[in-house]
Amino acid sequence: MSSDPRPLVAVVMGSKSDWETMRHADETLERFGVPHECRVLSAHRTPAEPIIAGAGGAAHLPGVIAASTLVPVLGVPVESQALRGLDSLLSIVQMPGGVPVGTLAIGRAGAVNAALLAIAILGASRPDLRDKLRAFRAEQARAVHAEPPR
Amino acid sequence: MSSDPRPLVAVVMGSKSDWETMRHADETLERFGVPHECRVLSAHRTPAEPIIAGAGGAAHLPGVIAASTLVPVLGVPVESQALRGLDSLLSIVQMPGGVPVGTLAIGRAGAVNAALLAIAILGASRPDLRDKLRAFRAEQARAVHAEPPR
Amino acid sequence: MSSDPRPLVAVVMGSKSDWETMRHADETLERFGVPHECRVLSAHRTPAEPIIAGAGGAAHLPGVIAASTLVPVLGVPVESQALRGLDSLLSIVQMPGGVPVGTLAIGRAGAVNAALLAIAILGASRPDLRDKLRAFRAEQARAVHAEPPR
Amino acid sequence: MSSDPRPLVAVVMGSKSDWETMRHADETLERFGVPHECRVLSAHRTPAEPIIAGAGGAAHLPGVIAASTLVPVLGVPVESQALRGLDSLLSIVQMPGGVPVGTLAIGRAGAVNAALLAIAILGASRPDLRDKLRAFRAEQARAVHAEPPR
Amino acid sequence: MSSDPRPLVAVVMGSKSDWETMRHADETLERFGVPHECRVLSAHRTPAEPIIAGAGGAAHLPGVIAASTLVPVLGVPVESQALRGLDSLLSIVQMPGGVPVGTLAIGRAGAVNAALLAIAILGASRPDLRDKLRAFRAEQARAVHAEPPR
Amino acid sequence: MSSDPRPLVAVVMGSKSDWETMRHADETLERFGVPHECRVLSAHRTPAEPIIAGAGGAAHLPGVIAASTLVPVLGVPVESQALRGLDSLLSIVQMPGGVPVGTLAIGRAGAVNAALLAIAILGASRPDLRDKLRAFRAEQARAVHAEPPR
Amino acid sequence: MSSDPRPLVAVVMGSKSDWETMRHADETLERFGVPHECRVLSAHRTPAEPIIAGAGGAAHLPGVIAASTLVPVLGVPVESQALRGLDSLLSIVQMPGGVPVGTLAIGRAGAVNAALLAIAILGASRPDLRDKLRAFRAEQARAVHAEPPR
Amino acid sequence: MSSDPRPLVAVVMGSKSDWETMRHADETLERFGVPHECRVLSAHRTPAEPIIAGAGGAAHLPGVIAASTLVPVLGVPVESQALRGLDSLLSIVQMPGGVPVGTLAIGRAGAVNAALLAIAILGASRPDLRDKLRAFRAEQARAVHAEPPR
User: Fold this and answer.
1) What's the order of all strands across the beta sheet hosting F51-56?
2) Could you tell me how far CA H133 lies from the centroid of its own chain?
3) pLDDT band (50, 70, 90) for residue C43
4) Residues B32/B37/B41/B42 CA torsion (nearest 10 deg)
5) For residue range B49-71, what is the model confidence (pLDDT) as tens digits?
6) DSSP H stretches of helix in H94-126
């Protein structure tokens, strides 16, 4: 985690057990060299440009943060035990008009994508991040076509 | 629609019947004075900073656009006839790792919120939009507390 | 609404549009003569003994209130447009261990029952309320058996 | 289990296999020193102040008990084999108007929270329990913020 | 309703509002000339050979009756307001091993079919009912093939 | 399996892989000494009094059999791989008016209960089976109350 | 309906009430001039090259036809009353390995698409149909881009 | 894989991880000696007669291919991690009118059936494939009836 410079992204989670999912957001931000910080439950004093919030079950954290900030909030539904994250997804995405949370997929893919979407947002004013994103996409495309399934 | 200046936001939809939902994104952007354009199905040459894509049923448009652009894509699940938008929601939000779509609520609230999230993204480099967003939030809060339910 | 004496129950809702559902809690408390108050979104200074909180969609209000009070919180999932209250229900009931919300049925029946459960809680130290509850139940039973379906 | 003094809470379950879930209610009540008793299927002669009832699948026990008592009934949906507790949840929470069951989350978190909600109800007339609840909450908050996720 | 002779089938329902659905069971039994009785909530003294029980939401009636009788119990999930009878269906069909309820479709079709299944059960010892059932089936088949869709 | 005398119950299943579930119907019938036979997919020449049909996924067997016989058909939804038997349940229970299938719970409990319901149907004309059912119920009740959960 | 020449497509439905949906398959085939026939429930003697089968609820018709023919069977889930066609969809699409039904969307769109897929299948050996399909697609694309949403 | 002659069927998948499911389509085509090819994500230059496309989660591949070709497209919903393929199924089957995807079951059975449906489509002009299909069906039927479940 590049925590020394001013964090550009805050990764917040509802409980320590969400770390298993949210560390994939952390790793993706790390890979792109984006200064960020990771916290449990608290996002009050964060000066970050976008905020990534993950939670499971009756997942209120992303919406509560979104109601108290003007920066974009991205939500990650963490997979829950009984209902496999369907409860997390609906609790995050079905926000009333006025308080948006940009919601990603349930679980690991959602955590990775929240980081990538945060990087796309930051990329508007940071050409180096947009270049890294372009390179990442090109590499993804190559990986897909490199080897046949058998 | 403020279509004269370079559009900052592109609102794209999967079919004309999605307009009934997506016009709420258009109206919200209009209210904030954000130059934008609205199109059916085509987003190829759009130089917009964020893209709002709405679609219903097996809703591929947001994901397909997201795979072909580096700017943030926000998805609006349009309410479908039989399954009430649950199909639209899952088709948009459950993107694989690598191609994020920031997904909002099903239907009208989602269209309004996609516009507000686009404005929050633009606000990073446009203090006037962030100020308008702050004013909008304050007005919302006043409206909520102004009259008792009876 | 018996608002003059100190309110014993606070009825809180996420938005004014929830009133159509939550007024059934209000009417039930009125019928039992329980002093109470009804508010939108704010429950901070309420000295009530139990709190009834209703909300729809990504319904955070009951859980957020529950995290900030030691008195029992009862949640009413308001029926939402697209997903018919399934989102409201899961957002309220699936709270993590540590912060309970006693959740009732979706919609009108849930609002009535939240009031009745609040009355049962108050009844522990107010024999008159328990007597009224007993009478209400007896009347219900008579109504059921009074007339044949045809 | 503090079974010697008059039990303040009855924990009832639909079958012995529910014990794996309901023991978390038992342990939480134990931790707070609340006299209680645990039984399978029978709650008839219980003089408890609130009743916690857990069941899985077509889970009738909480509703049936609620129809025959004037004290608050709290329901715990036990996770079922095929439908992961969605059947248990709907069978408990969707009670008709007139017979409330305050329903908690599916599984272990619900059992813990049913105990905490019962303690909150008892706390109205027992300041020592309310104090313990306040201490428990403070400890929870400290635990959350004590260690960073990594 | 042929209520004079000893009723062979008891039709029981959870509330008067279930009559709109359950009257289709009544009408089907009437059409076959099967002595039966219709009641709300009470099935205690019924000497019927099979029992049809309809209920909606957290629908406990069929299972509770099944636990207290040795005759076959057939359950009809009545369509509920918010969840369209999915809650009713799961509350009736997901009975634990030991207490069977033979469950039919949600709503009107289920009420008709509960009556037809009751008639099939009675037909084992009443050749006239089995003959009527055979005639009914033949008539159904003719009706299906009688007219083309246009 | 008591296959020598004329089988009173036919247990039919959609594929050999359903046997893992349906053997619980077989064992229950065996325990009650009910002559029966078990077959895969074919029920044409069966002179049984009730038929138990189990199938998974798009589970057509119970409905297809019900359309071709006048004896009561009981359906057992076998748990499927992806959707955990929700598809099996809806494919069996949601029969149109005119062709009833009395449907039991998903999986093992449903197979046991189909056998018990078949026995209850047979019991109308066989007092010995009704007596065994009464004894079975009494034993169940004793087992429930015999040992405390701890 | 072009019923004079040998029908190339059979449109079969589970009940007359499915006609409201299935007539959209009929109209699409008519528009392309494809000889076809429409029937309720019976597909035995049909020499058609593909078969379109629509049904609702516990929808067995498509699977039963598929098990008895070697030509491609296309299934249309008709929207049902209570569960909005989710039951129809799962009953048709979740066929076991060995008996395929190519399933289309719930309701009208599915009926139109079943006809278009049948035409695509016929087009392999009938260049005129493939040409008509190409023209239809081009016209669709023009219609989409012809007028802006406002 | 018979890749030497011109491939008659293209098997396309959304990511390499779909191969675990889609190899069952490959094996079935192999068993029938149908020339085919398997690719990840790309189907542009494929001259195949039908196309089988498998994908999971927000599964856009089958619909995107269907929009760009006139040959029949068959979709296989790959089982996803959190929602067990319900998201994959709805993303593939709920296509709007105009662009059909013939959808098969979730997972392995769907992959096998997509191959069998492709073979049935090819069989219209290749009597040898139809003969092999007839033999396969006869063998299936024998296997089902060959051994009793015990």
Assistant:
1) E36-40, E9-13, E51-56, E73-78, E102-103, F102-103, F73-78, F51-56, F9-13, F36-40
2) 15
3) low
4) -140
5) 999 999 999 999 999 999 999 99
6) 108-123
- Average pLDDT along chain A, 150 residues, taken 10 residues at a time: 74 95 98 96 73 97 95 98 96 97 98 98 96 95 70
Nearest by CB to E82, from C79, C144, C145: name it.
Answer: C79
Amino acid at D27: E
Cα dist from C42 to B146, C58, C144, G137, H120, whole Å = 12, 17, 38, 55, 64
Of D121, D98, D105, residue with least CA distance to D51: D121
Residues in B touching A71 (Cβ below 8 Å) = 120, 123-124
pLDDT band at F2 (very low <50, low <70, confident <90, very high): very low
**pLDDT band of B149, cuts 50, 70, 90:** low
Residues of H with CB under 8 A from a CB of G: 24, 49, 70-72, 74, 89, 93-106, 108-109, 112-114, 116-117, 120-121, 123-125, 130, 133-134, 137, 140
Between D59, D64, D94, which is nearest E57 by CB?
A: D94
Global pTM value: 0.95
Q: Are the C-beta atoms of residues H37 and A149 closer than 8 Å to each other? A: no
**Tens digits of per-residue pLDDT, B95-120?**
999 999 999 999 999 999 999 999 99
Tell which of B78, B86, B113 to mutate to test the A interface (max A CBs under 10 Å): B113
- Ordered alpha helix ranges (H), E32-126: 61-66, 86-93, 108-123
Find the closest chain D residue to A42 by CA distance: D145
State the best of A24, A106, A108 to mutate against chain H, taking most chain H CBs within 10 Å: A106
State the average pLDDT for chain H.
92
F contact test, residue of G64, G78, G91, G101 with most F CBs within 10 A:
G91
From chain C, the residues in CB contact with B145 under 8 A are 40-42
**Interface touch A91/C95, C-beta < 8 Å:** no
- The arithmetic mean of pLDDT across residues E118-127, rounded, is 96
**ipTM value for the complex:** 0.94
User: With bands split at pLDDT 50, 70 and 90, how would you rate the model's confidence at B42?
Assistant: low
